[in-house]
């Protein structure tokens, strides 16, 4: 491969084991496939590729055939110079670390609350995160631009990571699509990871736990899930309003 010395130096500096395997495999054979990763004991290929990208190394994803002829994903180096020109992965040291100063500013702005699930959470466990995944939008010029970041609970962070990595936009990298996604802007969105869906998170606290118990009992009686029972109750409520003339 025809790699610049600058890019080679960046590759040599990587010490993380999983990222190191991906890089060495690409250097050896020109690509690293999900089959290569699985054979090496790495079951989560997208996570391995993310490890590399988070270090500031551009990767392209494409399709090849595995040893039995099945279509699988493979990774190869992207254009280092192009990546720098686009200012998405311009820092050879990789993504800028999200600082404690940023987290404190987010806590002051939003409170100790998970922006995705809407629930209060211990501040020490909340994690600052890019609203638009770093792999798609990179770092903003102003790393204290609070509109570009959100606070997530650990479970919400895992939920978002899995959804983003399995979204079609993970390879398309259309920033405008991310801007309309629930996982980036749950306050105002048109889709969830590319699917025409809407989601409502309801937290039952001590004083209204009885409502959850009633919902659960009603759902069990009807042989459906709590989510399905909630939709059924809303539909019934709307029907009653219409019958009473409260709603046209």
Approximate shape: elongated
Q: Low-confidence runs (pLDDT<50, min 5 residues)?
A: 87-94
Number of helices, counting only DSSP H or I runs of 4 residues or more: 12
Radius of gyration: 23 Å
Kindly report the average pLDDT value: 88
Distance between the termini: 68 Å
Q: Strand portion, in percent?
A: 5-15%
Q: What is the number of beta strands?
A: 5
Helix/strand order: HHEHHEEHHEHEHHHHH
User: What class do helices, strands and sheet pairing give?
Assistant: mainly alpha
Descriptive notes:
The protein has helices spanning 5-12, 17-29, 34-39, 45-53, 80-85, 100-110, 134-137, 154-165, 169-172, 175-179, 209-222, 226-244, and strands at 32-33, 59-65, 71-77, 127-130, 149-152. Mean pLDDT is 88; it is low at 87-94. The protein starts with a helix and ends with a helix. The chain is elongated, with a radius of gyration of 23 Å. It has 248 residues and is mostly helical.
SSE diagram, text form:
Layout: H1 5-12, H2 17-29, E1 32-33, H3 34-39, H4 45-53, E2 59-65, E3 71-77, H5 80-85, H6 100-110, E4 127-130, H7 134-137, E5 149-152, H8 154-165, H9 169-172, H10 175-179, H11 209-222, H12 226-244
Antiparallel strand pairs: 1-3, 2-3, 4-5
Helix pairs in contact: 2-4, 11-12
Question: Would you kindly provide a brief summary of this structure?
Answer:
With 248 residues, this protein is mainly α. The chain is 45% helix and 10% strand.
């Amino acid at each position: 491969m025809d790699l610049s010395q600058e890019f080679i130096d960046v590759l040599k500096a990587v010490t993380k084991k999983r990222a190191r395997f991906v890089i060495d495999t690409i250097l050896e054979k020109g690509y690293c496939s999900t089959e290569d990763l699985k054979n090496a004991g790495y079951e989560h290929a997208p996570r391995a590729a993310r490890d590399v990208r988070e270090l500031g190394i551009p990767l392209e994803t494409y399709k090849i055939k595995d040893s039995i002829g099945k279509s699988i994903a493979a990774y190869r180096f992207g254009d280092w110079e192009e990546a720098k020109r686009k200012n998405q992965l311009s820092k050879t040291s990789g993504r800028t670390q999200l600082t404690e100063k940023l987290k404190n500013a987010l806590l002051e702005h939003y409170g100790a609350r998970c922006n995705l699930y809407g629930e209060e959470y211990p501040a020490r466990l909340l994690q600052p995160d890019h609203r638009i995944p770093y792999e798609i939008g990179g770092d903003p010029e102003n790393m204290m631009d609070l509109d570009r970041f959100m606070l997530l609970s650990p479970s919400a962070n895992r939920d978002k990571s899995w959804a983003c990595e399995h979204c079609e936009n993970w390879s398309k990298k259309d920033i405008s699509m991310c801007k309309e996604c629930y996982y980036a802007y749950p306050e105002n969105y048109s889709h969830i990871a590319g699917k025409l869906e809407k989601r409502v998170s309801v937290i039952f606290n001590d004083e209204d736990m009885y409502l959850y118990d009633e919902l659960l009992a009603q759902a069990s009686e009807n042989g459906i899930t709590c989510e399905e029972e909630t939709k059924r109750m809303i539909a019934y409520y709307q029907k009653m309003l219409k019958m009473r003339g409260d709603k046209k």
